[in-house]
Design brief:
Elements lengths: L5 E6 L18 H4 L3 H13 L4 E4 L14 H5 L10 H9 L5 E7 L5 H14 L4 E6 L4 H6 L7 H19 L7 E4 L4 E3 L7 E4 L4 E4 L12 E4 L4 H10 L2 E4 L4 H17 L7 E10 L3 H13 L3 H12 L21 H8 L9 H11 L4 E4 L1 H15 L3 E5 L5 H16 L12 H5 L2
Parallel strand pairs: 1-2, 1-13, 2-3, 3-4, 4-9, 9-10, 10-11, 11-12, 11-13
Antiparallel strand pairs: 5-6, 7-8
Helix pairs in contact: 2-4, 5-7, 7-8, 11-13, 14-15
The structure holds flavin mononucleotide (FMN).
């Protein structure tokens, strides 16, 4: 089979995904949908109809409170406030589907690896191996403050997360094949000699237990990671199956894939992690209609709403900064990868904070593909071929209309070109996504 593109739907359990004020669009039903399982079931069925690999939930665990040192604009404009727990949606969306994967963002900050393995692997086991985990290490100050913790310095977060992952892997690998006997006659359920006792005492964590969950049909959840800084990529190369990145430009996408490939080789990995890029598609029956939709989307975003999100993500209070100065002049202990990607959205590394905020408010830095379904399919194919990426994490503009439009209007075009599946290859997320 020729190599094919992979598609993942990108969401949050909140009034918006990545477009501030998308809740105010008359086509948007997310605010109602937040209190209805049916909304999420419908989303799951639609993505499965479109043969998507997975739905992926980002998360803002803790609020955006950097801008003006206040939560006000985050709350006022519903810039991911409220942010419900995405884990609550996984069971219902998995139960509604047979092939669709469900990937969730869970932070290593303020959680224990034992709980994380138990929660994720229970869902992975019961769904027949369709769960993914986006490992994040806590770049938001608000997340730490919500838990009464001090935020740990950038590289130390990753050191701590390395230890966290060591426990996870031991728990995932601790049940040998044949461990479960399940003999009704002898009354023996399992063979203790085939179940490892994990005994870990590190600098940050201790754990003494046996694996709480059986391996799933795919062994363990598929691991995603989105750190793009030097230390972030080192972590990703050690732990991830898939690296998720936001790059504003085609040339930066290609450079990202090439660099990760080279670092992966240097690190001795047999194969580099698969790379998926965040993308937003704006569709119309004509190009002019799509452009008008795009313009409306930008026009309704108050600068304060955009700055509230960008300040939170980049860990910088942009109310204290001249917005017409280069973004790259700032340093951050939060998301360094995102700062670099935004600063380079003009191709010369010189984007101003104001340019970046405008884009960040509308797409959280993801490039937009605008036009008719045919034009969007062209652009997707072009980016995929040019960058050598594995596929795309697609965030909708309106929920859930733009998801259904993409599935009904763009997916058939990709299928007709032979670059996207017409049926699932397997029932596990790993087998569908990693080939
Ligand atoms: C594309 C992308 C998606 C991310 N999604 C989340 C998320 O949903 N929740 C979160 O807390 N952090 C998220 N992050 C933050 C990263 O996981 C990471 O903690 C942050 O970028 C800092 O790492 P870095 O400096 O190595 O880039 C995301 C980052 C990127 C680039």
């Amino acid at each position: 089979m020729n190599k094919q593109m992979h598609l993942i739907g990108f969401y949050m359990h909140s009034p918006i995904n990545h477009t501030a004020l998308s809740w105010s669009d008359p086509d948007d039903d997310r605010v109602d949908g937040m209190r209805l399982f049916d909304h999420w079931k419908n989303l799951a069925r639609t993505l499965e109809r479109g043969k998507f690999d997975a739905a992926f939930f980002a998360d803002t665990p803790g609020g955006f409170e950097r801008y003006k040192e206040s939560f006000d604009d985050y709350i006022r404009y519903g810039v991911t406030w409220p942010c419900h727990d995405p884990m609550a949606l996984l069971g219902v969306m998995l139960a509604e589907t047979k092939h669709l994967g469900l990937a969730v963002t869970l932070s290593t900050a303020g959680t224990h690896p034992y709980h994380t393995v138990r929660r994720l692997s229970t869902l992975d086991y019961i769904s027949g191996g369709r769960v993914g985990w986006n490992i994040v290490s806590g770049h938001l100050r608000g997340e730490h403050r919500a838990l009464g913790l001090d935020q740990i310095e950038h590289d130390k977060r990753y050191d701590q997360a390395d230890e966290y992952m060591e426990i996870c892997h031991r728990l995932w690998n601790g049940v040998q094949p044949g461990a479960v006997i399940f003999d009704r006659q002898t009354g023996q359920f399992a063979d203790p000699s085939k179940v490892a006792v994990v005994d870990f005492a590190g600098e940050h964590y201790r754990c003494h237990t046996v694996p709480p969950v059986l391996p799933s049909a795919q062994g363990r959840p598929v691991l995603f990671q989105a750190g793009s800084s030097g230390r972030g990529q080192e972590f990703a190369l050690k732990h991830s199956d898939v690296v998720f990145s936001i790059q504003a430009r085609p040339d930066s996408m290609k450079a990202f894939v090439d660099k990760l490939g080279a670092s992966s080789k240097a690190a001795g990995r047999a194969e580099p992690p698969k790379v998926v890029f965040g993308i937003q598609c704006v569709l119309g029956d004509t190009e002019a209609e799509a452009r008008k939709r795009q313009a409306d989307l930008f026009d309704r975003i108050p600068l304060d709403a955009a700055l509230s999100r960008m300040s939170g993500t980049l860990g910088i209070d942009f109310s204290k900064i001249d917005l017409d100065t280069p973004l790259a002049a700032n340093t951050t202990d939060a998301s360094r990868g995102m700062l670099m990607a935004l600063a380079n959205m003009t191709g010369d590394g010189n984007a101003t904070a104001r340019d970046a905020a405008r884009i960040f408010g509308a797409t959280a830095g993801m490039p937009q593909l605008v036009g008719t379904p045919e034009q969007v399919a062209d652009q997707l194919e072009h980016l995929w071929r040019l960058s050598g990426c594995h596929g795309f994490n697609i965030t909708p503009t309106t929920n859930f209309k733009s998801v259904a439009d993409f599935v009904d209007e763009v997916v058939p075009l990709l299928q007709a070109r032979g670059i996207f599946r017409t049926d699932y290859e397997s029932e596990t997320l790993r087998d569908n996504l990693m080939n």
